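ok so I'm stuck.
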Amino acid sequence: MKNKKVVIVLLSFFILLSAAFMTYFYSVTKIEKKPLPYYGQAEHRIRPFSFVNQVGETVTEQTTKDKIYVVEYFFATCEGICPKMNENLNTVYQQFKGNKDVLFLSHTVDPEEDSTEALRKYALQFEADPKQWHFLTGDKKALYDQARYSYLISALDDTTGLSIDKDFIHDNHFVLVDQDARIRGVYDGLLPTEMVRLVTDIKILLQSKD
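replied:
not stuck anymore, here's the structure
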Protein backbone atom coordinates (compact mmCIF):
# COMPACT_ATOMS: atom_id res chain seq x y z
CA MET A 1 0.00 0.00 0.00
CA LYS A 2 2.83 2.31 0.95
CA ASN A 3 4.66 1.56 -2.29
CA LYS A 4 1.50 2.31 -4.27
CA LYS A 5 1.24 5.75 -2.65
CA VAL A 6 4.88 6.45 -3.48
CA VAL A 7 4.28 5.50 -7.12
CA ILE A 8 1.23 7.76 -7.28
CA VAL A 9 3.20 10.66 -5.77
CA LEU A 10 6.06 10.15 -8.21
CA LEU A 11 3.71 9.93 -11.19
CA SER A 12 1.96 13.11 -10.07
CA PHE A 13 5.34 14.83 -9.73
CA PHE A 14 6.47 13.83 -13.22
CA ILE A 15 3.12 14.83 -14.73
CA LEU A 16 3.40 18.28 -13.15
CA LEU A 17 7.04 18.55 -14.22
CA SER A 18 6.13 17.59 -17.80
CA ALA A 19 3.30 20.11 -17.84
CA ALA A 20 5.62 22.84 -16.57
CA PHE A 21 8.23 21.97 -19.20
CA MET A 22 5.67 22.02 -22.03
CA THR A 23 4.36 25.36 -20.84
CA TYR A 24 7.89 26.77 -20.80
CA PHE A 25 8.74 25.26 -24.19
CA TYR A 26 5.57 26.70 -25.71
CA SER A 27 6.29 30.15 -24.30
CA VAL A 28 9.88 30.15 -25.62
CA THR A 29 8.78 28.91 -29.03
CA LYS A 30 6.07 31.51 -29.12
CA ILE A 31 8.60 34.27 -28.40
CA GLU A 32 10.99 33.00 -31.07
CA LYS A 33 8.23 32.89 -33.67
CA LYS A 34 6.87 36.32 -32.73
CA PRO A 35 6.83 38.41 -35.93
CA LEU A 36 9.20 41.36 -36.16
CA PRO A 37 7.69 44.85 -36.01
CA TYR A 38 7.35 47.20 -38.97
CA TYR A 39 8.92 50.67 -38.82
CA GLY A 40 7.58 53.88 -40.33
CA GLN A 41 4.06 54.81 -41.24
CA ALA A 42 1.68 52.22 -42.67
CA GLU A 43 2.97 50.65 -45.88
CA HIS A 44 6.30 52.52 -45.64
CA ARG A 45 8.71 50.93 -48.11
CA ILE A 46 12.20 51.69 -49.36
CA ARG A 47 11.96 53.87 -52.42
CA PRO A 48 13.90 53.31 -55.67
CA PHE A 49 17.61 54.16 -55.63
CA SER A 50 20.72 53.92 -57.78
CA PHE A 51 24.27 53.98 -56.42
CA VAL A 52 27.64 52.53 -57.43
CA ASN A 53 29.54 49.94 -55.40
CA GLN A 54 33.25 49.39 -54.77
CA VAL A 55 33.84 47.61 -58.09
CA GLY A 56 31.93 50.13 -60.18
CA GLU A 57 28.70 48.15 -60.49
CA THR A 58 25.36 49.93 -60.27
CA VAL A 59 23.23 48.83 -57.32
CA THR A 60 19.49 49.56 -57.41
CA GLU A 61 16.27 48.39 -55.82
CA GLN A 62 16.36 45.56 -58.37
CA THR A 63 19.57 44.32 -56.75
CA THR A 64 17.81 44.03 -53.40
CA LYS A 65 14.48 42.76 -54.75
CA ASP A 66 13.23 39.79 -52.70
CA LYS A 67 16.38 40.01 -50.54
CA ILE A 68 16.94 40.68 -46.86
CA TYR A 69 19.50 43.43 -46.37
CA VAL A 70 21.26 45.47 -43.71
CA VAL A 71 21.92 49.18 -44.19
CA GLU A 72 24.47 51.53 -42.64
CA TYR A 73 26.02 54.95 -43.30
CA PHE A 74 29.73 55.65 -42.77
CA PHE A 75 32.76 57.07 -44.59
CA ALA A 76 36.13 55.54 -45.31
CA THR A 77 38.32 58.15 -43.58
CA CYS A 78 36.19 58.22 -40.43
CA GLU A 79 38.22 57.87 -37.24
CA GLY A 80 35.29 58.03 -34.84
CA ILE A 81 32.50 55.47 -34.69
CA CYS A 82 32.85 53.97 -38.19
CA PRO A 83 35.66 51.48 -37.50
CA LYS A 84 33.78 49.99 -34.55
CA MET A 85 30.53 49.91 -36.49
CA ASN A 86 32.08 48.07 -39.40
CA GLU A 87 33.94 45.65 -37.14
CA ASN A 88 30.59 44.78 -35.60
CA LEU A 89 28.84 44.60 -38.97
CA ASN A 90 31.55 42.26 -40.19
CA THR A 91 30.66 39.79 -37.43
CA VAL A 92 27.12 39.72 -38.83
CA TYR A 93 28.39 39.45 -42.41
CA GLN A 94 30.50 36.43 -41.46
CA GLN A 95 27.37 34.67 -40.20
CA PHE A 96 25.69 34.96 -43.62
CA LYS A 97 28.66 35.06 -45.96
CA GLY A 98 27.75 33.28 -49.17
CA ASN A 99 24.00 33.43 -48.49
CA LYS A 100 22.48 34.90 -51.66
CA ASP A 101 19.34 35.95 -49.78
CA VAL A 102 21.19 38.34 -47.45
CA LEU A 103 22.91 41.56 -48.57
CA PHE A 104 24.75 44.40 -46.82
CA LEU A 105 24.64 48.02 -48.05
CA SER A 106 27.18 50.46 -46.60
CA HIS A 107 26.54 54.00 -47.89
CA THR A 108 29.15 56.73 -47.72
CA VAL A 109 28.26 60.18 -46.41
CA ASP A 110 31.36 61.59 -48.12
CA PRO A 111 31.02 60.75 -51.83
CA GLU A 112 33.48 63.50 -52.81
CA GLU A 113 36.29 61.55 -51.15
CA ASP A 114 34.89 58.02 -51.23
CA SER A 115 35.37 57.05 -54.87
CA THR A 116 34.80 53.49 -55.99
CA GLU A 117 38.54 52.89 -55.69
CA ALA A 118 38.64 54.30 -52.14
CA LEU A 119 35.72 52.09 -51.17
CA ARG A 120 37.30 49.06 -52.85
CA LYS A 121 40.42 49.48 -50.74
CA TYR A 122 38.31 49.97 -47.62
CA ALA A 123 36.25 46.85 -48.34
CA LEU A 124 39.37 44.71 -48.71
CA GLN A 125 40.04 44.81 -44.98
CA PHE A 126 36.82 42.84 -44.47
CA GLU A 127 37.35 40.61 -47.51
CA ALA A 128 33.88 41.72 -48.53
CA ASP A 129 32.36 39.99 -51.52
CA PRO A 130 31.14 42.87 -53.77
CA LYS A 131 28.18 40.72 -54.78
CA GLN A 132 26.99 40.57 -51.18
CA TRP A 133 28.47 43.49 -49.23
CA HIS A 134 28.15 46.68 -51.26
CA PHE A 135 30.06 49.81 -50.28
CA LEU A 136 28.10 52.51 -52.06
CA THR A 137 28.82 55.97 -53.37
CA GLY A 138 26.91 58.32 -55.67
CA ASP A 139 25.08 61.62 -55.67
CA LYS A 140 25.36 63.19 -52.23
CA LYS A 141 21.79 64.47 -52.03
CA ALA A 142 20.44 61.10 -53.19
CA LEU A 143 22.50 59.31 -50.53
CA TYR A 144 21.31 61.65 -47.78
CA ASP A 145 17.68 61.59 -48.94
CA GLN A 146 17.75 57.79 -49.02
CA ALA A 147 18.88 57.75 -45.39
CA ARG A 148 16.24 60.20 -44.24
CA TYR A 149 13.19 59.22 -46.28
CA SER A 150 13.74 55.52 -46.91
CA TYR A 151 15.75 54.19 -43.97
CA LEU A 152 14.52 56.80 -41.45
CA ILE A 153 18.01 57.53 -40.13
CA SER A 154 20.36 60.54 -40.26
CA ALA A 155 23.03 61.40 -42.80
CA LEU A 156 23.90 65.05 -43.34
CA ASP A 157 26.56 67.74 -43.35
CA ASP A 158 27.43 69.12 -39.95
CA THR A 159 26.84 72.88 -39.97
CA THR A 160 27.39 73.21 -36.22
CA GLY A 161 31.10 72.38 -36.23
CA LEU A 162 30.55 69.96 -33.36
CA SER A 163 31.10 66.69 -35.22
CA ILE A 164 34.35 64.86 -34.41
CA ASP A 165 34.23 63.17 -37.82
CA LYS A 166 35.21 65.94 -40.23
CA ASP A 167 31.98 67.72 -41.19
CA PHE A 168 29.56 64.80 -41.34
CA ILE A 169 26.81 63.54 -39.11
CA HIS A 170 25.71 59.96 -39.68
CA ASP A 171 23.61 57.56 -37.72
CA ASN A 172 25.23 54.85 -35.61
CA HIS A 173 22.35 52.47 -36.29
CA PHE A 174 21.99 49.58 -38.70
CA VAL A 175 18.64 49.08 -40.42
CA LEU A 176 17.20 45.68 -41.35
CA VAL A 177 15.03 45.56 -44.48
CA ASP A 178 12.94 42.56 -45.41
CA GLN A 179 12.11 40.87 -48.73
CA ASP A 180 9.24 43.32 -49.29
CA ALA A 181 11.43 46.42 -48.87
CA ARG A 182 10.03 47.18 -45.41
CA ILE A 183 12.05 48.10 -42.32
CA ARG A 184 11.87 45.37 -39.68
CA GLY A 185 14.58 46.36 -37.21
CA VAL A 186 16.96 49.11 -36.06
CA TYR A 187 20.14 48.25 -34.12
CA ASP A 188 22.86 50.20 -32.34
CA GLY A 189 25.92 49.53 -34.48
CA LEU A 190 28.29 50.10 -31.55
CA LEU A 191 26.95 47.32 -29.33
CA PRO A 192 27.99 43.67 -29.87
CA THR A 193 24.82 42.55 -28.07
CA GLU A 194 22.79 44.30 -30.76
CA MET A 195 24.62 42.27 -33.39
CA VAL A 196 23.35 39.10 -31.72
CA ARG A 197 19.82 40.47 -32.00
CA LEU A 198 20.40 41.43 -35.63
CA VAL A 199 21.63 37.93 -36.52
CA THR A 200 18.59 36.43 -34.79
CA ASP A 201 16.20 38.73 -36.66
CA ILE A 202 17.78 37.97 -40.03
CA LYS A 203 17.28 34.28 -39.33
CA ILE A 204 13.63 34.94 -38.47
CA LEU A 205 13.14 36.67 -41.83
CA LEU A 206 14.91 33.84 -43.63
CA GLN A 207 12.56 31.34 -41.98
CA SER A 208 9.54 33.40 -42.97
CA LYS A 209 10.62 33.09 -46.59
CA ASP A 210 10.45 29.28 -46.48
